[in-house]
Amino acid sequence: MLVTLIAGLAIGAAYTMVAVGYNLTWLTSKTVNFAYGAFIVAGMFLSVYLYNAGLPLIIVFAVLALSGSIVAIIEYLIAIRPLEGRGDHAELVTTVGVTTAIQGTILLLSPSEDAVRVPFLNNEGWNAMIPMPGGGRIAVAEIVLIAVSVTVALLAHFWATRTRSGLAALAQSEDRDAALVLGVRPKRMAFVGFMISGAIGFALAPFVGPVTFAVVEIAFMLALKGFVVLAIGGMGSQLGALLGGLGLGLVEALVIRFTGSSYQNLAVFIIFIATLLLRPQGLFGHARERVV
Hints:
Elements lengths: L1 H28 L6 H17 L4 H24 L10 H19 L19 E3 L5 E3 H23 L1 H11 L1 H6 L4 H27 L5 H16 L4 H22 L4 H15 L14
Antiparallel strand pairs: 1-2
Helix pairs in contact: 1-5, 1-6, 1-8, 1-9, 1-10, 2-3, 2-4, 2-8, 2-9, 3-8, 5-6, 5-8, 5-10, 9-10, 9-11, 10-11
C-alpha cells in the first residue's frame, strides 16, 4: 500500500509541475499555456541527448533552462502577443498548436517513437530501489520528484505573495487597468513570465522523465491533467496546484490499485466535474462578483 501511495504522489508531483507553470503564465499574462506539458516532454528528450553527449550536470541544466527560455519566447511572440487585447481567449487554440508543433519536431528528430528511458540525473547509482515495509520497492527518483515539486510550488507561492514582482503579477492578473496606473508593465511582465516558465519547465524535465519515461504522447496527458489540477486548486494558487496535483495523483493510484486502470481517467473527470459544480473557483480560489 505504501508503494502505491508514493507512486501516486510521484505522478501527482508531475501534474503539480504543469499546474505551477500554468499559474506562472496566468499571473503574468492572463494566459494558460497549454504547451507546458510539451515543454516538459521536450526537456526530457533534450536531457537524454545531453546526457549521451557526456556533458556535466550543471551544463545540462544550463542548456535546458536556456532552451526552454528560447522556446517560450518564440511561443509568446508568435502565438500569444499578436492576440493580446482581443479578449476571445484565442490563445487556448494557439498554445495547443504549439504543443502539436513541439511534438512534431520531436518525432522528426527522434530516431524512434518508442518510450525513451531517462536516467535519473545520468547516474545509474541513483536509480536504486528502496525496499518498503510490507513488501515492494520504490525508486529514489520518485522521492526526489515529490520533494522537488513541493519545493518549486512553495517557492512559486513565496514569489507570488511575498515579492514585489510577484505582487505586481498578482495585481495585473486581477485588474490590468489598475495595475497600469500603478506602474506595472503587463507586456514586459508577460514576456518575462513566459521566459521564466519555459526555463523552469525544461529544467524540471530530468526529474519527471525517470518516473514517466520520455514519450511524445504524454504531452497532452500532462497538459490535460495539469488543467484539472488547476481547476481543483484554483487559478493562480500555487498551494492549490501543489495539493491538487498530489491529491489527484493519489486518487489515480488508488483507483488503479483497487479497480484497475480502466477507471483511472473516469475518476479524474468525476472529480473535475464535481469541482466545477460545487466549487468552480477551486479549493484555494476566491469567488468574485461581476457587475453586469
